[in-house]
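Exercise 7.
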Amino acid sequence: MERNNNYQVGNAKRRIVGQRNNRQHATEMKDFISFLPLELMLCVFSFLTLEELILASLVSKEWAHLVKIYLSVVPSSLNLDELKMSTGIINSHRTILPHELVNISLMTRVSISNSIISGNKKFNQFASRALYLYSGCKVKKLFLNLCYNGYHSSRQMVDQWIQFVMTNEVTELDINFSNGILIGYDITSKPYEFPYIQPTSKSLVSLKLNLCNFLKSNLQAFSYLQCLFLKFVKILDFSIEDLATKCTMLKDLTIACCLIPLNFMVCKKDINFRSLTVIRCFSQKGPLFPIDISSPKLLMFNLENCHLNTETNIKAPNLIEMGIRINKLYTNSGHRETLIKLLGHFSQCQTLLLNTWCIQVLSYEVNFIQSPPFSFKNLKHLKLQSGLEKEELIGISYLMRKCSYMECLTLHFHEARQILWDDLEEQNHIFFDFEDDQYWQTQSSTFYCLEYCLKEVRVYSDFGRNLEMHMLRFLLENAKVLEKMFLYTHQKIRGQQQDWLSGVKELSKGKQMVLKH
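Solution. The predicted structure, written as tokens, is:
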């Protein structure tokens, strides 16, 4: 009897303990957070990273709904970086940046490549989940930094992400496909090509593409674009005229290191671009291609590392800012005539940038022809990239005379880079028969801009050469209304550079001088 009583008491205790454990377990599993006020939940979510928000959305459907509400009321940018995520797996304390992949060892490169391959599925799931949560939300900018390998599965996944962009309110899209090559994927694999896109996005106004193909059939889907930036892009079958016709709202165009059709830059009708930048592009004839455009509304034009020839013709009567940087090793009469023609057409500019090649060519024209037919009466800011070669000094002096109302002068000093004169090489010593270290002392005539207008000089230099000191001495002694001089350097001043700096400080007494590293 006593044994039965003990057995019953034991069962009762176990039932009580079991009930207590069940109540405790139910209490622990109960979702109290979901019942908090929405405003408080949104405040909590504001402290979470994207990764943490995605984890929170996996807790339950209710939590996923709350995360989507938060993302819908907080306009944000979405950065999906496959390289960063993959290298972070190797070393959680330090992420390898794209430019560092150039100098790493083969073993490290293979390790990173294997990590990216193994983590590709995880990244795709993460990116797809993130885009699902952002469905119907306003996304200020979507950045996709991909290690694209050209395989069918990768292309299908990117196609889905592009479809998301075109059917949601994404304002800016930036896609970089180049990291696949950096980690060792086959460079001959076919670059990404956009699929046929049916919906036209009215929200997407800015598009940046790096290392892919771009087709004429893609233009219709991006007809509301206002800004287009293409780098290492193969433009297959359209011209700048097609681009302006299909994308009628396009204002800013930059093409850098792109492979373009031979007549891409030829347009028979006016285009309404606001800014145009062409950097080191190639056609089937290499860097040589005609440029013939008319853009009455063009305000900014930059041409870098492209050939100037007799087929270069740009009509932009309202241009405000122009930059020409040609890094060629030689020059001929056609180059010189085209440069002088461009400078003459754009004499209304307020900001002008020229590099050492342009300055040397201009020096010859000034010395030989005596007076090129242009003057920059509206120019306020002159930017010169110079090695202070003897062949540049005449051009620099001439520009300062022709920019009578210049208020700011920016000088980027770099290593001297003398060009070959081709048809004039034998006569070069006749045109520049003077001592370069004595040149500025011989400039006795008045510079109007130095007398009345020049208020600020900005100098970028890491060298501290005597030739630089001679020019700065000339400016400091003759600029009557100069207020500030900024000196920018990338390294600590030491040795001879310290003497150079001390000399500049001595000359700048009475004027504000600022040194920035």
